[in-house]
Amino acid sequence: MKARTIALGLVALLGCSEERLNPVAGPSDAGVPPTDAPTSEVPPDAPPVTKKRDVLTRNPFGDVAETQNLLWDGDFEWTSPFTDQYGWIELPSSPTITDVEIGPACKSGVKCARIRKNGAVVGIAVSSATMGLEASIWIHFEAEEGQAPACAEVSAFLADIGASIGPKDPDLALAPTSDVPDEDGWCQLRVSSPARSNKTYLYVENESASSVLLDDCVIRPAAEIPISQAPPSRRMSEASRAGAEEAVRVNRHPVDDAPNPARDAYRRFRAR
Predict the structure, then answer these.
(1) What is the pLDDT of residues 159-197, one digit of tens each?
(2) pLDDT at position 17, please?
(3) Looking at the predicted structure, is the pLDDT value of residue 211 above 90?
(4) Positive or negative CA dihedral for 65, 105, 87, 157?
(5) For strand 186-193 and strand 212-222, is the pairing parallel, antiparallel, or unpaired?
(6) If phi over 0 gives left and psi between -120 and 50 gives alpha, with beta otherwise, what is residue 103?
């Protein structure tokens, strides 16, 4: 018992030793006090550290936080060449979006729409009988190096372009919240509207020199704005309105066997 007590005492003394050791020293440096120079300093000729990947978390159902979205498919998550109901019409007359981007390039969810140069799309929504509306969209320019597009190079309107009963609601243009895209290359366009009597459509036209991605489109009920306080707004051009009205007229009901490049490609694939 006495020998065990002495052994424990020696261990306690060794554990309380104040000897300073260098954890990165080699065998020949044992017992040498550390210098003031940092041992983890990066050598001046070391290659730069490069980022290997970005990790993103996306909901495949899109922006589910917007529970009151009056657009049928504001995130394009349900947009498909094979759907029986269509949330968007692509001008001049396609009942579906023909160019859908899938992946991290989108703003919300995993799908978004690509609008080519001089292209336009119409989103199908509803109105509120008792409340005003707030509308917003996000756009991303797929510009080439050296191009510096401005957010105003995409036009968007809340428009009454369907078959209306009674007076038409006025056009309301969505205005950019900034002149230039943010650090991720996205622009947001917004507008607030008084209560509208007729069915609402969202018209988006790309007037830039490059294609754009369109995503996270929202039309939601909001506190009603008196008409006298409605924001000043420009109207759609006659050509844009005529094209949108024709596209809506042709596609405002289910279309059987509509020309569809994606469906035709699928049928050719199955035929092989």
Answers:
(1) 998 777 778 888 899 999 999 999 888 999 999 988 888
(2) 44
(3) yes
(4) positive
(5) unpaired
(6) left
pLDDT digits (tens, 9 = 90+) for 88-132: 999 998 888 889 898 889 998 889 999 999 999 999 998 887 889
DSSP-derived 3-state class of residue 263: helix
Say if pTM beats, i.e. exceeds, 0.90: no
CA–CA distance, 92 with 144 (Å, rounded to integer): 26
Give the separation between CA 123 and CA 233, rounded to whole angstroms. Answer: 19
Q: Encoding tokens for residue 3?
A: 């020998």
CB atoms within 10 A of CB 74: 27
Q: How far is CA 59 from the centre of its chain?
A: 12
Residue with tokens 């707004």: 233
User: In this structure, what are the phi and psi dihedrals at residue 127, rounded to the nearest 5 degrees?
Assistant: -110, 170
Tell me yes or no: is domain 88-252 CATH 3.40.50.1820: no
- Tokens read off for 206: 């790309």
Q: How distant, in Å, are the alpha carbons of 106, 169, 265 from that of 184? A: 11, 35, 34
Cα–Cα nearest to 94, from 269, 248, 266:
248
